[in-house]
Specification:
alpha/beta, Rossmann fold, 8 strands
Length: 373
């Protein structure tokens, strides 16, 4: 149920170390106006829908269907929200969950930790966030990463995210760090919109570089401030400090590869101690094997990071919305791939148990929506 794609020895050692352990999940929520660009993301059918995607996901992940949502899950162009995968597994396996608000446009109607962040401006401006705020968010990530990891030890901390448009800010961060990432990132579209992403990122990086001081061009935190999003600063801090106390699973695809690369660069820049061998990136098979991207190649290019993925399949699902994943829609989000990996590690769930768990939740959600159209 788990395939290790890069740094195999490190990845398999990590899996053996945490076999039978139940993790804790810290889900970092953020927003970037990049996600409002028409066509940039399929995580919400319209730009207006995408403004509340992260908040709706948080509500459903926390409450499930136990209360009417303030923000219903937004309609997608096709398929079903990946939060259904995450919620089904977290509820069934009683995985402890914490939300971190790194910067959202409106309040989150679930218990959460608010770090006083703000949404990022569109990255094409080259000034997405104030540098002082990025430094503060990173510091808060370090503080809370240590606490979360200590609570998780001797198990591991799963770090998830929800940022609409986040694969584009991830591309900007990875390119800004000097890696050739064009054509390698993923998206929620069945065929990745590389040309659109590349154009926006090039505009943002050019705008930043044209006015930045030389020392800022060498500072990963300044890079986040220029073309990133608030989740990146917080998740990088959590990763660095958390790795000193427990295993860390960065639960996501392109966005979490960017977080890993940023964390490593920040540690080098500021001479911060961490344990990179305790950190892995975990996603879904739909991301790792996306024919319109190259996640494995990107992980190999970044280097020394173990990329693994759940082999969960919806090919035999009775629901066409879930079978859409096999056609490349949605693919990942809100730690879905990490939760599927965790389900196998903790209770040795295989394909039948995972599929049944997700389909059972999806069926009750369909019934509820039919009763309340």
């Amino acid at each position: 149920m788990i395939r290790v794609y890069t740094q195999a020895a490190q990845g398999h050692a990590w899996l053996r170390r945490y076999w039978g352990h139940r993790p804790r999940l810290a889900c970092v929520l953020g927003f970037t106006e990049t996600g409002l660009i028409p066509g940039i993301s399929a995580a919400g059918a319209t730009p207006r829908d995408r403004q509340t995607t992260a908040i709706a996901d948080a509500e459903f992940l926390y409450w499930g269907q136990s209360r009417p949502p303030t923000y219903p899950l937004p309609p997608l162009q096709a398929g079903a929200s990946p939060v259904i995968i995450s919620r089904a597994i977290i509820a069934a396996q009683h995985i402890p969950l914490r939300f971190v608000n790194a910067g959202l446009p409106m309040p989150v109607p679930v218990p959460h930790l608010d770090l006083g962040g703000q949404p990022a401006q569109c990255l094409h401006t080259g000034q997405a966030l104030p540098i002082a705020l990025v430094r503060r968010l990173f510091h808060q990530g370090m503080v809370w990463g240590q606490r979360f990891a200590q609570e998780a030890s001797p198990s591991y901390l799963m770090v998830g995210e929800c940022v609409v448009g986040g694969t584009t800010t991830a591309l900007a961060a990875i390119l800004g760090l000097g890696f050739a990432a064009e054509g390698k990132v993923n998206s929620s579209h069945p065929a990745c919109n590389h040309a659109q992403k590349n154009a926006i990122v090039a505009q943002g990086l050019d705008a930043w570089r044209s006015r930045a001081m030389a020392e800022d061009l060498e500072d990963p935190l300044a890079l986040i401030a220029a073309v990133g999003d608030p989740m990146q600063a917080v998740a990088a801090g959590i990763t660095l400090a958390g790795s000193r106390h427990s295993g860390i699973m960065l639960a996501g695809g392109t966005q979490m590869l960017a977080v890993y690369a940023l964390a490593r660069a920040i540690a080098a820049r500021y001479q911060l101690l961490w344990q990179p061998d305790r950190v892995v990136v975990s996603t879904t098979r739909w991301v790792a094997e996306d024919p319109t991207g190259d996640t494995v190649g990107l992980a190999e290019h970044i280097g020394d990071v173990s990329l693994m993925a759940s082999q969960l399949s919806f090919a035999a699902s009775q629901y066409p919305q879930l079978r859409c994943y096999e056609d490349g829609f949605v693919k990942e989000g809100v730690a879905a791939g990490g939760c599927a990996v965790a389900a196998h590690l903790y209770l040795n769930w295989h394909q039948p148990q995972l599929l049944h768990c997700v389909e059972r939740l999806f069926a009750t959600l369909n019934l509820a929506q039919s009763a309340n159209p």
